[in-house]
Specification:
binds magnesium ion, binds adenosine-5'-triphosphate, five-stranded antiparallel sheet, five-stranded parallel sheet, alpha/beta, 10 strands, Rossmann fold, disordered N terminus
């Protein structure tokens, strides 16, 4: 029986397959069946292990039409794309995933609407936006699987790559059945650092992770605690870890440490400044606790920061805030997903004025984040 599962960071799927094959070994050699005591059914996890290779889909850029109730969609025949094998297309970026029939009749000229005009009239289809569509070949990704259950794409737009990394490298093992984790002596990832410019959704992502993990997080705001910790930082920091340590059921505890750089700046040798010495002290305390925290499998820290080099590098070592995820400002496609999220109800309730031109808005908001005003 495998005695430990290595959490590697090479490639999500490789990692995942490796973990699952070890899981299979344990199941095979186990006299007691592994109880499914967690949210994501084991069978689903196993299904993903069947993935032989991750197929990249051909993405077709194509105008999207929708009916007045926003329930039916149609698109044009693809441009320079062979759809002969494709029965259905799926819109990949819109409130969820919609399937519709592909029109593969070669008599339909390029750039024309796949449905004939009678059908369009009958269904009162209007042009909404140019959308990416892709042939809907069976796809199972770890992100899809989790999204089926938690619908986080309805809240966070354009962050699939980040989700893939965060689930694949950091959170997946938290969904394995507890008795499996115990028997394999698996060590979970203990700390994640989300970094990126203001407004890229770090706080939103951290909060959403706590919902997915079904834990009420303890939120620590760097700048706020600095003043509160003057004098008694040791006790305060100990408290943060103690609850997890003394939890009789070993339930997961989550600390969201916002703007951690406010208290854990690169340590300076200059103790003359009272703030510097408090920060240095807090950083040392935190490091000390984090090292003791190796034994604790039920505590996870998600820290956020704007610039990773503003933080004491000792905090970023393996076993501490070991997974570093850069949250990029949203590109065109991601901004479109974000606008989709925030215009969904308007659209569904017919409140979005017909002259709203999303393409233009997307163009005009280049470089913007949720923090731009
Ligand atoms: N990808 C996204 N999808 C949906 N909403 C987003 C996304 N990114 C940012 N937002 C929205 O933009 C606003 C700012 O996001 P948030 O506070 O999470 O950013 P942040 O990265 O934590 O910023 P800061 O570095 O200033 O703390 C929030 O209202 C958030 O919901
Ligand atoms: Mg924030």
């Amino acid at each position: 029986m495998a005695s430990s599962v290595k959490l590697c960071t090479v490639d999500t799927i490789t990692y995942y397959k490796e973990a699952i094959s070890q899981l299979n070994t344990v199941i095979e050699h186990s006299d007691t069946p592994i109880v499914q005591d967690d949210e994501i059914p084991m069978i689903e996890l196993l299904k993903i292990s069947q993935i032989k290779s991750v197929k990249r889909f051909t993405v077709i850029n194509s105008p999207l039409y929708y009916d007045e109730d926003v329930t039916n969609y149609a698109t044009v025949n693809g441009i320079n794309i062979d759809l002969s094998e494709t029965k259905y297309l799926a819109i990949t970026k819109r409130h969820g995933k919609f399937k519709f029939e592909a029109v593969t009749d070669i008599r339909v000229p390029k750039n024309t609407i796949g449905l004939n005009s009678r059908q369009r009239k009958r269904d009162r289809l209007k042009l909404y936006h140019t959308y990416n569509v892709k042939p809907s070949v069976k796809q199972h990704s770890i992100v899809d699987l989790f999204d089926q259950k938690y619908s986080f794409r309805a809240k966070i737009g354009g962050e699939d790559k980040m989700f893939e990394k965060i689930f694949g490298e950091a959170l997946l093992s938290r969904f394995y059945p507890k008795n499996f984790v115990q028997r394999t002596n698996m060590k979970h990832v203990k700390g994640i650092l989300l970094y990126g410019v203001p407004g890229t959704g770090k706080t939103l992502i951290a909060r959403t992770m706590s919902e997915i993990l079904s834990v009420l997080p303890k939120v620590i705001n760097g700048p706020e605690i600095l003043s509160k910790m003057l004098g008694n930082s040791k006790a305060k920091i100990r408290q943060l870890f103690d609850e997890a340590k003394s939890d009789p059921d070993g339930n997961l505890h989550l600390l969201i440490f916002e703007e951690i750089d406010a208290v854990c700046k690169r340590r300076s040798g200059d103790e003359a400044n009272v703030h510097d010495s408090v920060e240095n002290n807090i950083t040392s305390q935190l490091l000390c606790k984090m090292d003791g925290w190796h034994q604790l499998n039920n505590l996870l820290i998600i820290a956020t920061i704007n610039r990773p080099n503003a933080i004491d590098p000792a905090l970023l070592r393996p076993g501490r805030l070991e997974i570093h995820i850069k949250i990029e400002p949203p590109n065109d496609e991601a901004r479109l997903s974000i606008f989709d999220i925030y215009t969904k109800s308007l659209l569904q309730n017919n409140l979005l004025h017909h002259d709203v031109n999303l393409d233009r808005i997307i163009h005009q908001t280049q470089g913007w984040t949720g923090g731009t005003y």
